[in-house]
Specification:
The protein is an alpha/beta fold. Among the domains are: about 160 residues, Response regulator (Rossmann fold, 3-Layer(aba) Sandwich), CATH 3.40.50.2300; about 90 residues, no CATH class. Helix content is about 40%, strand content about 20%. It contains 24 helices and 22 strands. The strands form 6 sheets. A 7-stranded mixed beta sheet has the order 3-1-4-5-6-7-8, sandwiched between helices. A 4-stranded parallel beta sheet has the order 2-9-12-13, covered by helices on one side. It has a 4-stranded antiparallel beta sheet with strand order 19-20-21-22. Strand 15, helix 13 and strand 16 form a beta-alpha-beta unit. The protein is elongated and about 90 Å long. InterPro entries: BchE-like, Cobalamin-bd, Cobalamin-bd_sf, Elp3/MiaA/NifB-like_rSAM, Methyltransferase_Class_B, rSAM, rSAM_horseshoe, rSAM_sf. One of its GO terms (molecular function) is catalytic activity.
């Protein structure tokens, strides 16, 4: 028997190796491959030291190593490939995945005759490769691969057709591939393909294919396996969850599995943008089942010019606003996703788009850095679009961040990053939520201009820990780090809460806004209303309160007396009307839902990951307000 070892380096620990499972299950249905090969899967965290990886893989004594290569693990995979070639020159190494396909010359030197690159969907080429390794070893007969021949020429064989009947791929769950493993996180597919052609995305633009799906009962069986084996979290990797009517049925099945087995406890989805009603129904099912607390809304940009250039069509603005209203009525959190900077987007359009989202009542705005992905139309349009990238200094990943386009200079890019840090701290984290709303509604300052001014002020205050973190992140492309936003939340809502109080007061004072009617009261309302991201004791603000009076405080709550104009900003349904009420007495309850206590023994990165999740489900952590009997003070 020969042996093949499939290798996955994952972002999260104990991740179920789905890609390797598909490769093994598909290959083993070939009787010759099943006869000639034993299979092993080696799936570990990407930050595993190289020496450990090499030692473990050499111990496998495999004849074929299959490496799944992605943006987040490519540097480590390249190092691993080089070491395997050096130490096991008699073994074959196959590189597959969107980061390497069609880029064999970049990753494989002509001297490495035993390394092949798979240029597309992997099941057919990998099975054909194993047949050749066990047979004549004529790799010209393997479809969809690149390799160096004995004459030093790079050979690329014709690609096979994509698999349209996905049930040709046996279920690795049913085949027992994953039996015996302990998994806490699983990526699952119920279909493949995407009908859209967004130029920055590999999903649809590269495949340009209709959606092909696995048979419904087979998918349900796979999901049941995941539940029965205690997998805590699932990411549904379909490009547009909710696009198909059956996605509602599958969602109900997931909830039924949890009710029966206790797992999974959390589900993440990529929501279909053109089916807001169906996605809202799915979200509501998951929320009621205790498996999801937030709905993503993937706009990517609000700029018509950018949307046209990246070949994307968004939901209508009126539909977006209606969706936000429905989610608020159902008390379901949401977060609106953007990418900065897409081609066609300018600094002004990016800032103004976020300002409109804030004015429309978005729960949170999440802006991701634009990464230039291999094998996408945008990758081929770099010169045409004026795309400038910087590779992130990361020991394991190979991420190229877009820092300039024909519409955005490097300085604009950095200004946009500063602006977004103002959005995270002031809007998402609610540090200046009610002040910004008041100034916008009074016509004094729009959300866009408020956030621009805050970003400018933050740049002048790098004497503070919070602003120094902003500056360092902008200078080093720190926002590429998946935990970067969470770190901001940790600072603003926990470790440097008092510093944020003083920063906001200094900013408002510098602008002269604290002297305007109602602004001081709105600012003090923000001091009390800013949520606590952990379940912890509340603390009085670090700046004096002159318009709001704290009359009681216990572990999780304040009782405060507010002037009517400040109380009105809360828009509470049971708030008495009229300006002659004197003061309004309210209880501010910061207990929230699904919060965890602050884990002092955990690292900042661990806590930041938690904070990031909590920002996306903001309605779980914002305080609740209860109107108490009116109080009339003697003159």
């Amino acid at each position: 028997m020969m042996k093949t070892c499939l290798v996955e380096l994952t972002v999260y620990p104990n991740t179920l190796p789905l890609a390797s499972g598909y490769l093994q299950a598909y290959a083993q249905q070939d009787p010759d491959v099943a006869r000639d090969f034993d299979f092993a899967i080696h799936a570990v965290e990407v930050n595993t030291p190289l020496e450990t990886l090499v030692s473990d893989l050499l111990a496998q004594e495999a004849d074929v190593y299959g490496l799944s290569c992605y943006l987040w693990n490519m540097r480590r995979m390249k190092e691993l490939c080089d070491e395997l070639v050096r130490l096991r020159p008699d073994a074959y190494v196959v590189l597959g995945g969107p980061q390497v396909m069609h880029h064999a010359a970049e990753y494989v030197p002509p001297s490495a005759r035993n390394v092949l690159v798979c240029n597309g969907e992997g099941e057919k080429p990998f099975t054909a490769l194993l047949r050749e390794v066990a047979g004549e070893r004529n790799f010209h007969e393997v479809p969809g691969v690149s390799f160096w021949d004995d004459d030093g020429e790079l050979v690329t064989t014709p690609q096979p057709d994509r698999i349209k009947d996905l049930d040709e791929i046996p279920s690795p769950f049913a085949a027992g591939v994953f039996d015996g493993g302990e998994y806490t996180f699983a990526v699952v597919e119920t279909n493949r393909g995407c009908p859209y052609r967004c130029s920055y995305c590999y999903w649809g633009a590269a495949t340009n294919d209709k959606v092909h799906r696995w048979e419904l009962d087979r998918v349900k069986s796979d999901l049941s396996w995941i539940s029965e084996h205690g997998v805590e979290s699932i990411f549904v990797a379909d490009a547009n969850w909710g696009a198909l009517p059956r996605d509602v049925e599958l969602t109900r099945h997931l909830v039924e599995c949890k009710q029966r087995n206790g797992y999974p406890s959390m589900v993440a989805i990529q929501a279909a943008k053109n089916r807001p009603d169906r996605v809202t129904e799915i979200t509501e099912i998951l929320v009621e089942g205790g498996m999801l607390t937030s709905q993503p809304v993937s706009l990517q940009t609000t700029s018509p010019q950018a949307l046209e250039l990246v070949q994307r069509a968004n939901i209508k603005e009126s539909t977006y606003v209606e969706l936000q209203v429905k989610l608020r009525e159902k008390k379901i959190s949401s977060y609106t996703e953007l990418i900065w900077p897409l081609p066609g987007e300018t600094l002004a359009s990016y800032q103004e788009g976020i300002g409109k989202l804030c004015a429309s009542g978005a729960d949170a705005v999440v802006s991701y850095p634009q990464l230039l992905l291999r094998n996408t139309p945008m990758y081929r349009q770099q010169e045409e679009l004026g795309i400038v990238t910087v590779r992130v200094d990361d020991p394991v990943a190979e991420a190229d961040v877009v820092v300039g386009t024909k519409w955005v200079t490097r300085e604009d890019f950095q200004e946009g990053a500063w602006f977004y840090y103002a959005v995270i701290s002031i809007y998402n984290a609610r540090a200046g939520f009610y002040v910004a709303r008041l100034l916008d509604r009074q016509g004094v300052c729009s959300y866009t201009d408020f956030l621009r001014a805050a970003a400018h002020y933050f740049k002048t205050r790098t004497d503070t820990e919070i602003c120094r973190f902003f500056a360092d992140s902008v200078a080093t492309l720190g926002n590429y780090d998946i935990n970067n936003i969470g770190k901001v939340l940790h600072y603003v809502l926990h470790s440097h809460r008092g510093e944020m109080d003083e920063l906001l007061e200094g900013f408002l004072r510098e602008r002269g806004w604290l002297d305007l009617p109602g602004v001081r009261a709105a600012f003090e309302l923000d001091l009390l209303a800013r949520p606590y991201v952990y379940r912890e004791s509340v603390v009085a603000p670090s700046v004096p309160l002159t318009h709001i009076r704290l009359v009681e405080q216990d572990r999780y709550t304040f009782v405060a007396e507010l002037p009517p104009e400040a109380a009105a900003l809360l828009e509470l349904p049971d708030l008495p009307e009229g300006a002659d009420l004197g003061v309004v007495r309210l209880r501010v309850d910061h207990v929230g839902r699904r919060k965890m206590p602050y884990p002092k023994h955990r690292s900042l990165d661990y806590n930041a990951g938690y904070c990031q999740v909590m920002m996306n489900r903001m309605r779980d952590i914002v305080p609740s307000w209860t109107v108490l009997p009116a109080v009339h003070h003697a003159a």
